[in-house]
Write a structure and sequence with these properties.
It is a single chain. By secondary structure, this protein is of the alpha/beta class. Strands 1, 2, 3, 4, 5, 6 and 7 form a seven-stranded mixed beta sheet that branches. Helix 1 links the parallel strand 3 and strand 4. Helix 1 packs parallel to helix 2. The longest helix is centred in the middle third of the chain and has 16 residues. The two termini are 25 Å apart. The relative contact order is 0.16.
């Protein structure tokens, strides 16, 4: 799948995992203000990470411009989910891309603070704020909306 195949408000895409259909992690990818947005849904644990990692690796591969990961729809995030976020952040920034993270859940934010990842991943409470902080590949800031 190519990044440019996704548009705003695209359908949720089911990432296959060996869980009942109502517990499977979802990844919805769309663009907003020139930024690829990866919206995670469900419980992001070790099993979900195994299903999601290849998709995020594709999104963060060569040619990545700007990526925002939206955690607002998740119900749970474990240490393997944190590792997935750190990996995605590293892959984006090593390739000269810009990164944004959307997170407003108090427990997830607490985990990010306790692990000192708040400073690295830079969570914003809304997608608009995350997009406003992202620099697009041409050097301009995202319009955010």
């Amino acid at each position: 799948m190519r990044r440019d195949e996704y548009v705003d408000d695209g359908p949720l895409e089911l990432v296959q995992a060996s869980r009942p259909h109502y517990e499977r992690p979802f990844l919805r990818v769309h663009t907003r203000a020139g930024v690829t947005v990866a919206e995670l849904h469900g419980e992001i644990d070790i099993q979900a990470v195994q299903a999601l990692r290849p998709r995020l690796d594709t999104l963060t591969g060569d040619g990545v411009g700007a990526l925002a990961v939206d955690l607002r729809p998740i119900r749970f995030l474990d240490c393997s989910g944190l590792a997935l976020l750190v990996r995605a952040h590293r892959r984006v920034t090593e390739r000269g891309g810009s990164w944004g993270l959307v997170c407003d859940h108090p427990l997830t934010l607490r985990i990010l603070r306790i692990t000192a990842l708040t400073a690295v991943l830079g969570p914003a409470p809304t997608l608009e704020q995350a997009l406003a902080a992202i620099s697009l590949p041409n050097g301009s800031a995202s319009a955010g909306g």
